[in-house]
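User: Here's a structure from my thesis project, written as C-alpha cells. My advisor, Dr. K., wants to see whether a designed sequence matches the one we expressed. Can you design one independently, without my sequence as a hint?
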C-alpha cells in the first residue's frame, strides 16, 4: 500500500480523553504497521502549559503496555510535539501557524495539515473559523483537512447551522465527519457480505425478508459522562448517527463503485426513503426508557437519576426502541426495529435479518409448532462474526426439525490483523479517502429523521418514559413493537442467545 503524503496532524484537545484513549494508540498502531507517511508529525494543541517532552511522557502511558519503553515506542514518541494554545482566542493562532511552519522546515514536511477537533462541540465552529482567518485553510501549498467528532449538532437546526458555517470556510471534500462505527471492520464487512456473495443479493429484499432487527446494547451506564449524556439521550447519542449508519449499510443498493461519493449517495438514498415517523405516531412507534437502581449479581447498581451530572427528575432516555419502514422497491412493507440502551445485560451490537418462513409447513418442529424464520446474524461486536440459523432434521425416526447454528468467528482468522476503528479512519483521512466519513447531506437527513421524535417528546411530556431495572433487557412494553416475533436476546458469544447468558 502506498504511504500517505507527508503531513502534520494537529490534534486540538490534546490533553483530553479521546486523544489518550483512542487517537494516540491508533497512531501508534499505524506506526507499527509502517503505514504512516515517511515524514510525519503530530502537533498536540491545548491550553495546558507543557512542552514537547512532558507531552511525550504523558502520551507514553497510553501506548500498549509491553512496548512503552521500547526503542520503537521512543521513535514514535519523537514524532509528537506540543503547542500551548488558547483555542478560542484568535490572537494565539499566529503562534500556532509559525510552529507549524518551523516544524515543516525542520522535518521537510510541506504545508499539508490535518486538524483533528477532539474538543467539546462548542468549539466546532470556533476553531475552523479562526484557522481560516489565520490562513490555515489555504490549499495552495498543501492540503488542509478537518476531522470533526460527533455530535454534529444537537438537532436539525443546529446541524444545518454547523454545516453552513463550516462550508463557508472549507469545501465538503476538506471535511471529515467521523462516525467511529463506520471504521469498524465488521461494519464494513456488511458491504462485503452483501455484495461479494451471489447467494445473498437475490433474497435481500421484501420478497424474502420478514423483518430486520438492529441491537446495540451496553452494560455500562453513563459513567462520568452524565453531564453530557443528560442533554443528549440514547436517540441523539446512538440512533441519529451510529445506528442510522448501520441501517444505511444493510439497506443500500449496490454502489456503482467502491468510492466515497458512490457509497455515500447510496446511504443518503436509504435515509431519504425512511418513512418519517409523524409526531402523533411517536407513542406507538418509539419507546423510551431509563434505567433504575437494581442489583446485578449481588452488587447494588445506581439508577440513572442518581448518576453524577444527572438531574434527579431527569427524563432523558437511556434506552430507545423504534419501528420504522423504508419506502422503496427493495424494502416496501418490511419492518425495521432498532433498540439501544445502557445498563443492559450484555454488550452486543448486531444486525439480525429474519427471513420469511417456507410457504407450506411440512414438518414437526422441536420447541413449538411453528417453523422459525431463518436468521442471519451479522455480529459487529464482541465475538465478531456471522451466524446463520437453519432448520435441520433431528436424527432418528420421523421428520422432526431443530434449529442449528452455522457460525463464523473473526478470531478464526488467527494471523489476520484487525485494525481499530480509529486507525482505519485516520489512515483513510491521511489518504484523502472520505468513503467512511459522513457527508453533510446525510448528517442533515439523519437529523431530519429523528427531529419529529425529539419534538414529540418535548411537546408531549406525557409520552411515557419507562423505567427498567439496570441489568435487564429494557422496558417490557417494547415487546409490543414486534407484533409477530420476538427480540433476540443475544449473548456475548455469537452462537448463544436466550434470557440467561453470561454477564
Ligand atoms: C459513542 C457514544 O459515540 O459510542 C457512547 O457517545 C457509546 O455513549 C459509544 O457508549 C459506543 O461505542 P462502541 O464502539 O463501544 O459500541
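Assistant: Designed independently from the structure alone:
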Amino acid at each position: 500500500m502506498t504511504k500517505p503524503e507527508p503531513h502534520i496532524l494537529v490534534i486540538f484537545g490534546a490533553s483530553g480523553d479521546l486523544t489518550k484513549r483512542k487517537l494516540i494508540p491508533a497512531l501508534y498502531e499505524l506506526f507499527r504497521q509502517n503505514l504512516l507517511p515517511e515524514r510525519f508529525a503530530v502537533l498536540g494543541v491545548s491550553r495546558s502549559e507543557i512542552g514537547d517532552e512532558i507531552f511525550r511522557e504523558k502520551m507514553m502511558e497510553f501506548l500498549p503496555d509491553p512496548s512503552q519503553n521500547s526503542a520503537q515506542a521512543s521513535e514514535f514518541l519523537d514524532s509528537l510535539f506540543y503547542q500551548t494554545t488558547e483555542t478560542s482566542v484568535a490572537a494565539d493562532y499566529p503562534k500556532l501557524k509559525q510552529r507549524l511552519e518551523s516544524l515543516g522546515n525542520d522535518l521537510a514536511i510541506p504545508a499539508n495539515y490535518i486538524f483533528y477537533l477532539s474538543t467539546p462541540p462548542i468549539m466546532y465552529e470556533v476553531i475552523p473559523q479562526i484557522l481560516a482567518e489565520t490562513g490555515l485553510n489555504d490549499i495552495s501549498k498543501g492540503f488542509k483537512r478537518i476531522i470533526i467528532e460527533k455530535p454534529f449538532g444537537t438537532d436539525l437546526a443546529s446541524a444545518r447551522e454547523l454545516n453552513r458555517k463550516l462550508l463557508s470556510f472549507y469545501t465538503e471534500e476538506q471535511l471529515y465527519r467521523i462516525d467511529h462505527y463506520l471504521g469498524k471492520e465488521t461494519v464494513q464487512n456488511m458491504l462485503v457480505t452483501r455484495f461479494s456473495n451471489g447467494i445473498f443479493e437475490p433474497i435481500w429484499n421484501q420478497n424474502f425478508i420478514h423483518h430486520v432487527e438492529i441491537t446495540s446494547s451496553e452494560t455500562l451506564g453513563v459513567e462520568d459522562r452524565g453531564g453530557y449524556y443528560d442533554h443528549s439521550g440514547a436517540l441523539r447519542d446512538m440512533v441519529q448517527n451510529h445506528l442510522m449508519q448501520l441501517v444505511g449499510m444493510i439497506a443500500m443498493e449496490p454502489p456503482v463503485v467502491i468510492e466515497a461519493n458512490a457509497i455515500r449517495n447510496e446511504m443518503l438514498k436509504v435515509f431519504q426513503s425512511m418513512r418519517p415517523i409523524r409526531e402523533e405516531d411517536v407513542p406507538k412507534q418509539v419507546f423510551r426508557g431509563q434505567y433504575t437502581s437494581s442489583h446485578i449479581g449481588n452488587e447494588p447498581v445506581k439508577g440513572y437519576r442518581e448518576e453524577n451530572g444527572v438531574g434527579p427528575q431527569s427524563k432523558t432516555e437511556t434506552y430507545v426502541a423504534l419501528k420504522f419502514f423504508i419506502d422503496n422497491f427493495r424494502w416496501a412493507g418490511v419492518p425495521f426495529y432498532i433498540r439501544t440502551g445502557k445498563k443492559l445485560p450484555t454488550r452486543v451490537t448486531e444486525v439480525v435479518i429474519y427471513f420469511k418462513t417456507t410457504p407450506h409447513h411440512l414438518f414437526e418442529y422441536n420447541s413449538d409448532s411453528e417453523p422459525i424464520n431463518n436468521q442471519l446474524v451479522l455480529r459487529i461486536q464482541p465475538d465478531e462474526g456471522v451466524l446463520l440459523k437453519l432448520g435441520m432434521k433431528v436424527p432418528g425416526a420421523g421428520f422432526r426439525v431443530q434449529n442449528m447454528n452455522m457460525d463464523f468467528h473473526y478470531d478464526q482468522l488467527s494471523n489476520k490483523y484487525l485494525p481499530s476503528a480509529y486507525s482505519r479512519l485516520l489512515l483513510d483521512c491521511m489518504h484523502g479517502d472520505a468513503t467512511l466519513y459522513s457527508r453533510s447531506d446525510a448528517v442533515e437527513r439523519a437529523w431530519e429523521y429523528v427531529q419529529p421524535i425529539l419534538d414529540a417528546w418535548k411537546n408531549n411530556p406525557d409520552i411515557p418514559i419507562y423505567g427498567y431495572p439496570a441489568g435487564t433487557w429494557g422496558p417490557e412494553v417494547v415487546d409490543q413493537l414486534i407484533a409477530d416475533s420476538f427480540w433476540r436476546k443475544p449473548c456475548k458469544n455469537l452462537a448463544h442467545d436466550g434470557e440467561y447468558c453470561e454477564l
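When you compare it with your expressed construct, this may help: The pocket of 6-O-phosphono-beta-D-glucopyranose is lined by residues 218, 237, 349 (CB under 6 Å).
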